[in-house]
Amino acid sequence: MSKGDGIYPEDLHYTKEHEWLGVSGGVATVGITHYAQSELGDIVYVELPQVGAAVVAGEPFGTVESVKAVSELFAPTSGTVAEVNGALTEHPETVNRDPYGEGWMIRIKMADAQEVQGLMTTPAYRKYVEDEAN
Amino acid sequence: MSGQASGGAPKKTPLHALAKELGGRLVDFAGWEMPVQFSSVIEEHMAVRTAAGLFDVSHMGEIEVEGQDALAFVQSVTCNDASRLADGQAHYSALTTPEGTFVDDILVYRRGPDRFLLVVNAGNTDKDFEWARRHVSGKVKVENASARWAQIAIQGPRAEEILRPHTPADLRGIAYYHFAETRVGGAQALLSRTGYTGDDGFEIYLAPAASEGVARALLDGGRSSGLLPCGLGARDTLRLEAGMPLYGNDIDETTTVLEAGLGWICKLDKGPFVGREALLRQKTAGPKRRRVGFEMVDRGIARHGYPVRFEGREVGQVTSGTFGPYVKKNIGMAYVPPELSGTGARFSVVIRERDAAAVVVPTPFYRRAR
Predict the structure, then answer these.
(1) Which of B24, B160, B204, B232 has the fewest CB atoms below 10 angstroms from its CB?
(2) Mutation test of the interface with chain B: which of A48, A67, A71, A93, choosing the one with the most B Cβ atoms within 10 A?
(3) Do the chains contact at B322 and A67, CB–CB below 8 Å?
(4) Is-contact B71 B211, C-beta < 8 A?
(5) A47 — contact with chain B (CB < 8 Å)?
(6) Global pTM?
(7) pLDDT, tens digit, for every residue of B223-251?
(8) A45 touches chain B (CB under 8 A)
Protein backbone atom coordinates (compact mmCIF):
# COMPACT_ATOMS: atom_id res chain seq x y z
CA MET A 1 0.00 0.00 0.00
CA SER A 2 1.07 3.55 -0.58
CA LYS A 3 -0.09 6.38 1.64
CA GLY A 4 -2.92 4.23 2.89
CA ASP A 5 -0.86 2.95 5.79
CA GLY A 6 -0.87 6.22 7.67
CA ILE A 7 -4.17 7.19 9.19
CA TYR A 8 -3.06 10.84 9.16
CA PRO A 9 -0.43 11.25 6.44
CA GLU A 10 1.91 14.15 7.18
CA ASP A 11 2.07 15.74 3.75
CA LEU A 12 -1.64 16.44 3.28
CA HIS A 13 -4.12 19.17 4.12
CA TYR A 14 -7.56 18.40 5.53
CA THR A 15 -11.09 19.84 5.59
CA LYS A 16 -13.73 19.81 8.31
CA GLU A 17 -15.81 17.59 6.02
CA HIS A 18 -13.01 14.98 6.14
CA GLU A 19 -11.58 15.40 2.67
CA TRP A 20 -7.83 15.40 2.20
CA LEU A 21 -5.87 17.32 -0.35
CA GLY A 22 -2.29 16.79 -1.53
CA VAL A 23 -0.69 19.54 -3.61
CA SER A 24 1.93 19.09 -6.26
CA GLY A 25 2.80 21.74 -8.84
CA GLY A 26 -0.50 23.64 -8.68
CA VAL A 27 -2.55 20.45 -8.93
CA ALA A 28 -4.41 19.15 -5.88
CA THR A 29 -5.30 15.49 -5.49
CA VAL A 30 -8.46 15.05 -3.42
CA GLY A 31 -10.01 12.15 -1.53
CA ILE A 32 -11.73 11.35 1.75
CA THR A 33 -9.85 10.51 4.91
CA HIS A 34 -9.41 7.21 6.66
CA TYR A 35 -11.74 8.45 9.38
CA ALA A 36 -14.40 9.39 6.80
CA GLN A 37 -14.35 6.01 5.08
CA SER A 38 -14.44 4.25 8.43
CA GLU A 39 -17.46 6.29 9.55
CA LEU A 40 -19.25 5.68 6.25
CA GLY A 41 -18.68 1.93 6.21
CA ASP A 42 -18.70 -0.10 3.01
CA ILE A 43 -18.60 2.32 0.10
CA VAL A 44 -20.71 1.09 -2.80
CA TYR A 45 -21.08 4.12 -5.06
CA VAL A 46 -19.01 7.16 -5.98
CA GLU A 47 -20.27 9.93 -8.25
CA LEU A 48 -17.64 12.35 -9.52
CA PRO A 49 -17.64 15.38 -11.86
CA GLN A 50 -16.41 15.38 -15.45
CA VAL A 51 -12.92 16.46 -16.37
CA GLY A 52 -13.08 20.18 -17.11
CA ALA A 53 -15.84 20.91 -14.62
CA ALA A 54 -15.36 23.90 -12.34
CA VAL A 55 -15.30 23.25 -8.61
CA VAL A 56 -15.62 25.85 -5.86
CA ALA A 57 -14.04 25.56 -2.42
CA GLY A 58 -16.63 24.46 0.13
CA GLU A 59 -19.20 23.49 -2.52
CA PRO A 60 -20.24 19.90 -3.32
CA PHE A 61 -18.41 18.27 -6.22
CA GLY A 62 -19.73 14.73 -5.95
CA THR A 63 -21.34 12.06 -3.84
CA VAL A 64 -20.17 9.00 -2.00
CA GLU A 65 -22.60 6.34 -0.80
CA SER A 66 -22.09 3.56 1.67
CA VAL A 67 -24.58 0.75 2.13
CA LYS A 68 -26.23 2.84 4.80
CA ALA A 69 -25.92 6.46 3.79
CA VAL A 70 -25.41 9.14 1.16
CA SER A 71 -22.78 11.83 1.73
CA GLU A 72 -21.79 14.81 -0.33
CA LEU A 73 -18.18 15.46 -1.22
CA PHE A 74 -17.01 19.05 -0.73
CA ALA A 75 -14.26 20.64 -2.75
CA PRO A 76 -11.34 21.64 -0.54
CA THR A 77 -10.15 24.17 -3.12
CA SER A 78 -11.40 26.01 -6.20
CA GLY A 79 -10.32 25.25 -9.73
CA THR A 80 -10.92 22.98 -12.68
CA VAL A 81 -11.16 19.20 -12.60
CA ALA A 82 -8.02 17.93 -14.35
CA GLU A 83 -8.45 14.20 -13.74
CA VAL A 84 -11.01 11.81 -12.31
CA ASN A 85 -10.36 8.40 -10.76
CA GLY A 86 -12.55 6.38 -13.11
CA ALA A 87 -11.56 3.10 -11.46
CA LEU A 88 -13.84 3.97 -8.55
CA THR A 89 -16.90 3.50 -10.77
CA GLU A 90 -16.34 -0.25 -10.87
CA HIS A 91 -14.51 -0.55 -7.55
CA PRO A 92 -15.83 2.01 -5.08
CA GLU A 93 -14.59 -0.23 -2.22
CA THR A 94 -11.06 0.95 -3.08
CA VAL A 95 -11.89 4.07 -1.05
CA ASN A 96 -12.27 1.88 2.08
CA ARG A 97 -9.15 -0.10 1.35
CA ASP A 98 -6.78 2.70 0.43
CA PRO A 99 -8.34 6.13 1.04
CA TYR A 100 -5.09 8.12 0.65
CA GLY A 101 -3.73 6.10 -2.25
CA GLU A 102 -5.67 4.28 -4.95
CA GLY A 103 -8.89 5.63 -3.47
CA TRP A 104 -8.14 9.22 -4.55
CA MET A 105 -11.11 10.86 -6.26
CA ILE A 106 -10.24 13.87 -8.39
CA ARG A 107 -7.33 16.13 -9.30
CA ILE A 108 -8.02 19.86 -9.37
CA LYS A 109 -5.96 22.42 -11.24
CA MET A 110 -5.99 25.00 -8.51
CA ALA A 111 -7.17 28.55 -9.18
CA ASP A 112 -5.13 29.82 -6.22
CA ALA A 113 -2.42 27.68 -4.69
CA GLN A 114 -2.51 29.84 -1.54
CA GLU A 115 -5.99 28.52 -0.76
CA VAL A 116 -4.58 25.49 1.07
CA GLN A 117 -3.42 27.81 3.86
CA GLY A 118 -7.00 27.87 5.09
CA LEU A 119 -7.12 24.07 5.52
CA MET A 120 -6.10 22.01 8.52
CA THR A 121 -2.61 20.63 8.96
CA THR A 122 -2.11 17.02 10.01
CA PRO A 123 -1.87 17.70 13.79
CA ALA A 124 -4.88 20.03 13.61
CA TYR A 125 -6.94 17.43 11.77
CA ARG A 126 -5.92 14.66 14.13
CA LYS A 127 -7.13 16.78 17.06
CA TYR A 128 -10.32 17.66 15.16
CA VAL A 129 -11.13 13.97 14.63
CA GLU A 130 -10.32 13.07 18.21
CA ASP A 131 -12.62 15.82 19.44
CA GLU A 132 -15.40 14.72 17.07
CA ALA A 133 -15.04 11.09 18.13
CA ASN A 134 -15.45 11.98 21.80
CA MET B 1 -32.76 2.97 8.58
CA SER B 2 -35.62 4.57 10.29
CA GLY B 3 -37.67 3.92 13.33
CA GLN B 4 -40.18 5.61 15.50
CA ALA B 5 -38.61 8.19 17.73
CA SER B 6 -39.26 7.96 21.40
CA GLY B 7 -38.37 10.38 24.13
CA GLY B 8 -35.63 10.09 26.70
CA ALA B 9 -32.37 8.18 26.71
CA PRO B 10 -32.21 5.18 24.40
CA LYS B 11 -33.01 1.84 25.97
CA LYS B 12 -30.49 -0.98 26.12
CA THR B 13 -31.10 -4.65 25.46
CA PRO B 14 -29.62 -7.35 27.70
CA LEU B 15 -27.02 -7.92 24.95
CA HIS B 16 -25.91 -4.29 24.88
CA ALA B 17 -22.71 -4.87 26.86
CA LEU B 18 -21.79 -7.83 24.66
CA ALA B 19 -22.37 -5.78 21.51
CA LYS B 20 -20.03 -3.12 22.88
CA GLU B 21 -17.43 -5.68 23.84
CA LEU B 22 -17.56 -7.16 20.33
CA GLY B 23 -16.86 -3.75 18.80
CA GLY B 24 -20.37 -3.01 17.61
CA ARG B 25 -20.98 0.51 16.35
CA LEU B 26 -23.99 1.63 18.35
CA VAL B 27 -26.77 3.83 17.01
CA ASP B 28 -30.21 4.90 18.18
CA PHE B 29 -32.90 2.82 16.50
CA ALA B 30 -36.57 3.08 17.46
CA GLY B 31 -35.59 4.31 20.91
CA TRP B 32 -32.98 1.59 21.46
CA GLU B 33 -29.22 1.82 21.35
CA MET B 34 -28.36 -1.02 18.97
CA PRO B 35 -25.32 -2.16 16.99
CA VAL B 36 -25.62 -1.10 13.35
CA GLN B 37 -22.52 -3.09 12.40
CA PHE B 38 -19.58 -5.00 13.88
CA SER B 39 -17.09 -5.58 11.07
CA SER B 40 -18.77 -4.35 7.90
CA VAL B 41 -22.34 -4.46 6.64
CA ILE B 42 -21.28 -6.30 3.48
CA GLU B 43 -19.16 -8.85 5.35
CA GLU B 44 -22.00 -9.54 7.81
CA HIS B 45 -24.54 -9.75 5.00
CA MET B 46 -22.38 -12.28 3.12
CA ALA B 47 -21.82 -14.29 6.30
CA VAL B 48 -25.58 -14.79 6.59
CA ARG B 49 -25.93 -15.77 2.92
CA THR B 50 -23.01 -18.22 2.97
CA ALA B 51 -22.56 -19.33 6.61
CA ALA B 52 -24.44 -17.70 9.48
CA GLY B 53 -24.96 -14.50 11.42
CA LEU B 54 -26.16 -13.78 14.93
CA PHE B 55 -28.38 -10.78 15.64
CA ASP B 56 -29.62 -9.25 18.86
CA VAL B 57 -33.27 -8.48 18.20
CA SER B 58 -34.29 -8.11 21.82
CA HIS B 59 -35.72 -4.68 21.04
CA MET B 60 -38.70 -6.37 19.35
CA GLY B 61 -41.88 -6.27 21.39
CA GLU B 62 -43.81 -9.26 22.73
CA ILE B 63 -47.50 -9.14 23.56
CA GLU B 64 -48.94 -12.17 25.31
CA VAL B 65 -52.59 -13.01 24.73
CA GLU B 66 -54.23 -15.61 26.94
CA GLY B 67 -57.70 -16.80 27.83
CA GLN B 68 -60.77 -18.54 26.56
CA ASP B 69 -61.38 -15.83 23.96
CA ALA B 70 -57.72 -15.42 22.93
CA LEU B 71 -58.26 -16.79 19.42
CA ALA B 72 -61.38 -14.68 18.86
CA PHE B 73 -59.44 -11.62 19.97
CA VAL B 74 -56.47 -12.33 17.68
CA GLN B 75 -58.89 -12.96 14.81
CA SER B 76 -60.62 -9.63 15.44
CA VAL B 77 -57.50 -7.44 15.33
CA THR B 78 -55.33 -9.19 12.72
CA CYS B 79 -55.92 -9.83 9.03
CA ASN B 80 -54.43 -13.32 8.66
CA ASP B 81 -56.49 -16.33 9.74
CA ALA B 82 -55.18 -17.42 13.13
CA SER B 83 -57.73 -20.24 13.28
CA ARG B 84 -55.54 -22.08 10.79
CA LEU B 85 -52.60 -22.14 13.20
CA ALA B 86 -51.81 -25.33 15.08
CA ASP B 87 -50.02 -25.37 18.41
CA GLY B 88 -46.35 -24.74 17.68
CA GLN B 89 -47.06 -22.85 14.49
CA ALA B 90 -46.61 -19.18 13.63
CA HIS B 91 -47.56 -16.87 10.81
CA TYR B 92 -46.94 -13.40 9.46
CA SER B 93 -49.86 -11.05 9.92
CA ALA B 94 -50.79 -7.44 10.57
CA LEU B 95 -52.69 -5.39 13.10
CA THR B 96 -54.94 -3.38 10.82
CA THR B 97 -56.71 -0.03 11.16
CA PRO B 98 -60.36 0.41 10.10
CA GLU B 99 -58.92 1.75 6.82
CA GLY B 100 -57.04 -1.50 6.21
CA THR B 101 -53.66 0.13 6.82
CA PHE B 102 -50.95 -1.12 9.15
CA VAL B 103 -50.95 -0.45 12.86
CA ASP B 104 -48.02 -2.85 12.59
CA ASP B 105 -46.84 -5.98 10.83
CA ILE B 106 -46.42 -8.81 13.31
CA LEU B 107 -45.77 -12.48 13.90
CA VAL B 108 -48.48 -14.51 15.59
CA TYR B 109 -47.36 -17.61 17.53
CA ARG B 110 -49.89 -20.15 18.75
CA ARG B 111 -48.49 -21.61 21.98
CA GLY B 112 -51.74 -23.34 22.90
CA PRO B 113 -55.44 -23.24 22.02
CA ASP B 114 -55.92 -20.25 24.35
CA ARG B 115 -52.43 -18.86 24.26
CA PHE B 116 -50.86 -16.63 21.61
CA LEU B 117 -47.72 -14.54 21.40
CA LEU B 118 -47.66 -11.46 19.15
CA VAL B 119 -44.20 -10.28 18.17
CA VAL B 120 -44.23 -6.64 17.12
CA ASN B 121 -41.83 -3.96 15.90
CA ALA B 122 -39.76 -2.26 18.60
CA GLY B 123 -40.92 1.25 17.76
CA ASN B 124 -44.57 0.18 17.76
CA THR B 125 -44.67 -1.86 20.95
CA ASP B 126 -46.44 0.70 23.13
CA LYS B 127 -48.81 1.73 20.33
CA ASP B 128 -49.68 -1.89 19.50
CA PHE B 129 -50.27 -2.76 23.12
CA GLU B 130 -52.61 0.22 23.58
CA TRP B 131 -54.36 -0.71 20.33
CA ALA B 132 -54.78 -4.30 21.45
CA ARG B 133 -56.06 -3.26 24.85
CA ARG B 134 -58.65 -0.97 23.31
CA HIS B 135 -59.98 -3.86 21.24
CA VAL B 136 -60.18 -6.46 23.96
CA SER B 137 -63.51 -8.11 24.58
CA GLY B 138 -64.51 -11.30 26.33
CA LYS B 139 -62.30 -13.50 28.45
CA VAL B 140 -58.82 -12.58 27.36
CA LYS B 141 -55.78 -11.14 29.06
CA VAL B 142 -53.44 -9.01 26.94
CA GLU B 143 -50.07 -8.23 28.42
CA ASN B 144 -47.05 -6.28 27.21
CA ALA B 145 -44.41 -8.87 28.10
CA SER B 146 -41.58 -7.24 26.16
CA ALA B 147 -39.37 -6.79 29.19
CA ARG B 148 -39.54 -10.52 29.91
CA TRP B 149 -38.23 -11.57 26.50
CA ALA B 150 -34.85 -11.22 24.89
CA GLN B 151 -34.50 -12.40 21.33
CA ILE B 152 -31.51 -13.73 19.41
CA ALA B 153 -31.73 -14.49 15.70
CA ILE B 154 -29.30 -16.95 14.17
CA GLN B 155 -29.65 -16.89 10.41
CA GLY B 156 -27.97 -18.52 7.45
CA PRO B 157 -27.43 -21.93 5.85
CA ARG B 158 -25.24 -23.11 8.74
CA ALA B 159 -27.56 -21.86 11.51
CA GLU B 160 -28.99 -25.32 12.19
CA GLU B 161 -25.65 -27.06 12.58
CA ILE B 162 -24.34 -24.27 14.81
CA LEU B 163 -27.41 -24.38 17.01
CA ARG B 164 -27.63 -28.19 17.25
CA PRO B 165 -25.13 -28.75 20.11
CA HIS B 166 -26.90 -26.13 22.23
CA THR B 167 -30.40 -27.58 22.31
CA PRO B 168 -32.14 -30.91 22.89
CA ALA B 169 -34.77 -29.94 20.29
CA ASP B 170 -35.01 -31.96 17.08
CA LEU B 171 -34.18 -29.04 14.79
CA ARG B 172 -34.91 -31.00 11.63
CA GLY B 173 -38.39 -31.51 13.01
CA ILE B 174 -39.05 -27.77 13.29
CA ALA B 175 -40.43 -26.74 9.91
CA TYR B 176 -40.38 -23.20 8.54
CA TYR B 177 -42.74 -21.01 10.59
CA HIS B 178 -42.98 -23.59 13.34
CA PHE B 179 -41.47 -23.51 16.81
CA ALA B 180 -40.66 -25.59 19.85
CA GLU B 181 -40.77 -24.70 23.53
CA THR B 182 -37.46 -26.16 24.52
CA ARG B 183 -34.11 -25.27 26.00
CA VAL B 184 -31.22 -23.46 24.36
CA GLY B 185 -27.90 -23.27 26.18
CA GLY B 186 -29.63 -24.59 29.28
CA ALA B 187 -32.23 -21.82 29.29
CA GLN B 188 -35.95 -22.20 28.64
CA ALA B 189 -36.66 -20.86 25.16
CA LEU B 190 -39.21 -20.52 22.42
CA LEU B 191 -37.24 -21.66 19.39
CA SER B 192 -38.74 -20.65 16.10
CA ARG B 193 -37.71 -21.39 12.52
CA THR B 194 -38.35 -17.87 11.29
CA GLY B 195 -36.33 -14.85 10.32
CA TYR B 196 -36.00 -11.57 8.50
CA THR B 197 -33.18 -12.38 6.13
CA GLY B 198 -34.53 -14.67 3.40
CA ASP B 199 -32.27 -17.48 4.56
CA ASP B 200 -32.88 -20.47 6.78
CA GLY B 201 -32.47 -19.82 10.48
CA PHE B 202 -33.97 -19.54 13.90
CA GLU B 203 -35.24 -16.92 16.29
CA ILE B 204 -34.68 -17.71 19.94
CA TYR B 205 -36.95 -16.07 22.50
CA LEU B 206 -35.65 -16.39 26.03
CA ALA B 207 -35.33 -14.70 29.40
CA PRO B 208 -33.16 -11.56 29.33
CA ALA B 209 -30.93 -12.88 32.12
CA ALA B 210 -30.05 -15.97 30.07
CA SER B 211 -29.51 -14.23 26.76
CA GLU B 212 -25.90 -13.12 27.06
CA GLY B 213 -24.69 -16.58 28.03
CA VAL B 214 -26.56 -18.16 25.14
CA ALA B 215 -25.29 -15.57 22.66
CA ARG B 216 -21.70 -16.09 23.83
CA ALA B 217 -22.00 -19.87 23.62
CA LEU B 218 -23.43 -19.68 20.09
CA LEU B 219 -20.78 -17.20 18.93
CA ASP B 220 -17.94 -19.27 20.43
CA GLY B 221 -19.29 -22.53 19.06
CA GLY B 222 -20.10 -21.08 15.65
CA ARG B 223 -16.92 -19.17 14.97
CA SER B 224 -15.27 -22.06 13.14
CA SER B 225 -18.39 -22.38 10.96
CA GLY B 226 -18.14 -18.75 9.91
CA LEU B 227 -20.74 -17.31 12.31
CA LEU B 228 -20.40 -13.54 12.70
CA PRO B 229 -22.17 -11.11 15.02
CA CYS B 230 -24.34 -8.91 12.80
CA GLY B 231 -25.91 -5.50 13.22
CA LEU B 232 -29.02 -3.72 12.04
CA GLY B 233 -27.27 -2.58 8.86
CA ALA B 234 -26.99 -6.11 7.53
CA ARG B 235 -30.45 -6.92 8.88
CA ASP B 236 -31.81 -4.15 6.66
CA THR B 237 -29.93 -5.15 3.48
CA LEU B 238 -30.80 -8.82 4.04
CA ARG B 239 -34.51 -8.19 4.49
CA LEU B 240 -34.54 -5.91 1.48
CA GLU B 241 -32.92 -8.55 -0.76
CA ALA B 242 -35.55 -10.93 0.61
CA GLY B 243 -38.28 -8.48 -0.45
CA MET B 244 -39.58 -8.10 3.10
CA PRO B 245 -41.13 -4.76 4.07
CA LEU B 246 -39.83 -2.65 6.96
CA TYR B 247 -42.40 -0.88 9.07
CA GLY B 248 -41.92 2.89 8.93
CA ASN B 249 -40.26 2.64 5.51
CA ASP B 250 -42.35 0.42 3.25
CA ILE B 251 -45.54 0.09 5.26
CA ASP B 252 -47.26 2.25 7.85
CA GLU B 253 -50.64 3.69 8.80
CA THR B 254 -51.03 5.27 5.35
CA THR B 255 -50.50 2.09 3.29
CA THR B 256 -53.03 -0.71 3.11
CA VAL B 257 -52.22 -4.39 3.30
CA LEU B 258 -53.34 -4.82 -0.31
CA GLU B 259 -51.33 -1.86 -1.62
CA ALA B 260 -48.31 -3.41 0.08
CA GLY B 261 -48.80 -6.56 -1.97
CA LEU B 262 -49.50 -8.61 1.13
CA GLY B 263 -52.86 -9.95 0.01
CA TRP B 264 -51.63 -13.41 1.04
CA ILE B 265 -51.84 -12.44 4.74
CA CYS B 266 -55.24 -10.88 4.23
CA LYS B 267 -57.94 -13.55 4.66
CA LEU B 268 -61.05 -11.58 3.86
CA ASP B 269 -63.28 -14.65 4.12
CA LYS B 270 -62.28 -15.55 7.69
CA GLY B 271 -64.97 -13.42 9.36
CA PRO B 272 -64.98 -9.90 10.77
CA PHE B 273 -61.80 -8.07 11.73
CA VAL B 274 -60.80 -4.43 12.01
CA GLY B 275 -60.29 -3.09 8.49
CA ARG B 276 -62.04 -5.92 6.67
CA GLU B 277 -64.71 -3.75 5.03
CA ALA B 278 -62.16 -1.26 3.75
CA LEU B 279 -59.99 -4.06 2.39
CA LEU B 280 -62.97 -5.76 0.73
CA ARG B 281 -63.87 -2.49 -0.97
CA GLN B 282 -60.29 -1.98 -2.07
CA LYS B 283 -60.03 -5.51 -3.35
CA THR B 284 -63.13 -5.01 -5.49
CA ALA B 285 -62.09 -1.59 -6.80
CA GLY B 286 -58.41 -2.51 -7.08
CA PRO B 287 -55.70 -0.64 -5.16
CA LYS B 288 -54.67 2.69 -6.69
CA ARG B 289 -51.01 1.97 -6.07
CA ARG B 290 -48.89 -1.06 -5.43
CA ARG B 291 -45.60 -1.81 -3.75
CA VAL B 292 -43.11 -3.18 -6.27
CA GLY B 293 -39.51 -4.29 -6.27
CA PHE B 294 -37.23 -2.66 -8.81
CA GLU B 295 -33.66 -2.75 -10.01
CA MET B 296 -31.77 0.31 -11.12
CA VAL B 297 -30.93 0.26 -14.82
CA ASP B 298 -28.87 3.45 -14.72
CA ARG B 299 -26.11 4.06 -12.20
CA GLY B 300 -27.18 5.24 -8.79
CA ILE B 301 -28.74 3.98 -5.60
CA ALA B 302 -32.39 4.67 -4.83
CA ARG B 303 -33.13 5.68 -1.24
CA HIS B 304 -36.18 6.04 0.99
CA GLY B 305 -38.22 9.09 -0.07
CA TYR B 306 -36.79 9.56 -3.56
CA PRO B 307 -39.56 10.40 -6.07
CA VAL B 308 -40.62 8.01 -8.80
CA ARG B 309 -41.25 9.75 -12.12
CA PHE B 310 -42.95 8.56 -15.29
CA GLU B 311 -43.23 10.62 -18.45
CA GLY B 312 -42.19 13.71 -16.52
CA ARG B 313 -44.78 13.32 -13.76
CA GLU B 314 -44.17 12.28 -10.19
CA VAL B 315 -46.16 9.07 -9.76
CA GLY B 316 -44.82 7.51 -6.58
CA GLN B 317 -42.05 7.22 -4.03
CA VAL B 318 -39.20 4.92 -3.21
CA THR B 319 -39.71 3.39 0.24
CA SER B 320 -36.45 1.43 0.57
CA GLY B 321 -33.32 1.19 -1.53
CA THR B 322 -29.80 -0.05 -1.25
CA PHE B 323 -26.95 -1.79 -2.94
CA GLY B 324 -27.74 -5.49 -2.53
CA PRO B 325 -24.46 -7.03 -1.35
CA TYR B 326 -25.33 -10.59 -2.43
CA VAL B 327 -27.31 -9.89 -5.61
CA LYS B 328 -24.77 -7.15 -6.41
CA LYS B 329 -27.39 -4.85 -7.85
CA ASN B 330 -28.92 -1.59 -6.79
CA ILE B 331 -32.40 -2.58 -5.67
CA GLY B 332 -35.38 -0.99 -4.04
CA MET B 333 -39.08 -0.92 -3.31
CA ALA B 334 -41.56 1.76 -4.32
CA TYR B 335 -45.26 2.48 -4.49
CA VAL B 336 -46.34 3.05 -8.07
CA PRO B 337 -49.66 3.17 -9.98
CA PRO B 338 -51.00 -0.29 -10.99
CA GLU B 339 -50.16 0.26 -14.66
CA LEU B 340 -46.47 0.59 -13.70
CA SER B 341 -46.44 -2.36 -11.30
CA GLY B 342 -45.95 -5.24 -13.74
CA THR B 343 -42.62 -7.01 -14.17
CA GLY B 344 -40.64 -5.20 -16.83
CA ALA B 345 -42.38 -1.85 -16.35
CA ARG B 346 -39.96 1.06 -16.46
CA PHE B 347 -39.91 4.34 -14.59
CA SER B 348 -37.36 6.81 -13.30
CA VAL B 349 -36.10 7.31 -9.80
CA VAL B 350 -35.12 10.90 -9.18
CA ILE B 351 -31.64 10.83 -7.67
CA ARG B 352 -30.24 14.27 -6.85
CA GLU B 353 -32.55 15.93 -9.37
CA ARG B 354 -31.62 13.55 -12.17
CA ASP B 355 -33.82 10.85 -13.64
CA ALA B 356 -32.26 7.39 -13.37
CA ALA B 357 -33.99 4.49 -15.12
CA ALA B 358 -35.33 1.57 -13.08
CA VAL B 359 -37.23 -1.58 -14.02
CA VAL B 360 -39.78 -3.59 -12.05
CA VAL B 361 -38.54 -7.10 -11.23
CA PRO B 362 -40.13 -10.00 -9.34
CA THR B 363 -39.45 -10.18 -5.61
CA PRO B 364 -37.76 -11.51 -3.63
CA PHE B 365 -34.56 -10.23 -5.19
CA TYR B 366 -32.81 -13.09 -3.43
CA ARG B 367 -34.26 -16.57 -3.11
CA ARG B 368 -32.29 -19.19 -1.23
CA ALA B 369 -31.62 -22.57 -2.76
CA ARG B 370 -33.70 -25.23 -1.00
Answers:
(1) B160
(2) A67
(3) yes
(4) no
(5) yes
(6) 0.94
(7) 999 999 999 999 999 999 999 999 999 99
(8) yes
